[in-house]
Design brief:
Blueprint: E1 4-11, H1 15-28, E2 33-37, H2 42-48, H3 54-62, E3 65-70, H4 86-95, E4 100-106, H5 119-122, E5 126-132, E6 144-147, E7 153-156, H6 163-178, E8 183-188, H7 194-207, E9 214-219, H8 220-229, E10 236-239, H9 241-254, E11 262-266, E12 272-276, H10 293-305, H11 310-325, H12 343-353
Parallel strand pairs: 1-2, 1-3, 3-12, 5-10, 8-9, 8-10
Antiparallel strand pairs: 4-5, 4-11, 6-7, 11-12
Helix pairs in contact: 1-10, 1-12, 6-7, 8-9, 10-11, 11-12
Length: 354
């Protein structure tokens, strides 16, 4: 069997720490995998002056999947926007055609005390956010800065979607819901934004092709409130790039920590980029405090969605659940009075279970 090729782009801050633990878990499985590392983000800027060097992009293009850490550091905030570390992940999404971001968020029963939710709500919390990833204000043009008619400086971005972009991400959400509880909540701001009105119309039209799935529309401000009050009402949340970025971070907090949430960014043919949804957290980088579970669970998503290894993915997920059930915690999910363990120790517990 030809080894699956994985590009490992660890990046900045805690990225290298948590990615190294995910790689260790992948190696423990004994699968035919070929892993190659390359710099990205601030680490690449230090070496080459570019956040996404040509060699790194070439490696990602040639790979069957990309395992990504995190990018960003305040040290680079004064650089022009196109030179900042965050541009690396945005360009990777565009260059690899990764339009569908899957962000599962669910309750791990042992973490109930770490969640702000009431126990009865937390126990039923299991949702999937399907976020469109290559459109919206993140990629819309024109954008920039100018002097307006009153002589004042202003900044502007363009929110835009075309029908094909909306329809294909809606299709992903409906197909995902068919394998879950068959409910999709499409989130927009159609009472204010023309783009959202258009989004709602296209999603409603695509829903006709998925009669087995129930469709609900909701404004983004109400969705943010309902996530906090009754997240168990949701199955699959379908939304655009900007709203999805915000809502998925909120969902992460509800699970007990953003350090628990993995993500998959997928293209048309199964190739994907997999990363924890948390940032680079430079304040704790190098201190063995980061939670590696989101990165490890991202590796599980990679096995399931890009490498055709659902049983191996399930083994990783079961190992994570077993470690949590035994009471092991990193600092972000530890309750008051609990003594947390470090990044490497938490990963070692997962390896023991495997």
């Amino acid at each position: 069997m030809k080894p699956a090729r994985i590009a490992v782009l660890a990046g900045d801050g805690v990225g290298p720490e948590v990615t190294a633990q995910a790689v260790a878990v992948l190696k423990r499985l004994g699968l035919p995998l070929e892993l190659a590392e390359a710099p990205v983000g601030g680490a690449a800027i230090e070496r080459t002056g570019e956040p996404l060097p040509a060699a790194t992009l070439a490696l990602a293009r040639e790979a069957d999947a990309v395992l990504f850490g995190a990018v960003g550091d305040a040290r680079y905030d004064r650089l022009p926007r196109e030179k900042r570390p965050e541009q690396a992940i945005l360009r990777l999404r565009a260059e690899l055609g990764l339009f569908a971001n899957l962000r599962p968020a669910r309750a791990y029963a042992p973490l109930a005390a770490a969640s702000p939710l009431k126990p009865e709500r937390f126990a039923r919390f299991d949702l999937l956010i399907v976020r469109e990833l290559t459109g919206d204000v993140y990629f819309g043009t024109p954008r920039g800065r100018r002097t307006n008619e009153r002589g004042l400086a202003e900044g502007y971005d363009t929110m835009r979607y075309d029908e094909g972009e909306v329809r294909r991400i809606a299709r992903v959400a409906f197909e995902a819901a068919r394998e879950r509880r068959r409910r999709v909540c499409s989130v927009d701001k159609a009472n204010v934004l023309e783009t959202s009105q258009f989004w709602r119309e296209v999603v409603a039209d695509e829903a006709r092709h998925h009669p087995q799935v129930e469709l609900e529309h909701m404004y983004v401000d109400n969705c943010a409130m309902q996530l906090a009050l009754a997240p168990d009402r949701f199955d699959v949340i379908l939304t655009g790039n900007l709203f999805g970025d915000i809502l998925s971070d909120e969902a992460g907090a509800l699970t007990g920590s953003i350090g628990m949430l993995p993500s998959a960014s997928l293209g048309e043919k199964g190739r994907g980029l997999y990363e924890p949804i948390h940032g680079s957290a430079p304040d704790i980088a190098g201190r063995d405090r980061a939670n590696p579970l989101a990165a490890i669970l991202s590796a599980a998503l990679m096995l399931r969605h890009s490498l055709g290894e659902p049983q191996a993915a399930a083994r990783i997920e079961a190992a994570v659940e077993a470690v949590l059930a035994e009471g092991w915690r990193t600092a972000d999910i530890a309750a008051v009075g609990e003594r947390p363990i470090g990044t490497a120790a938490m990963a070692a517990k997962v390896l023991e279970k495997l």
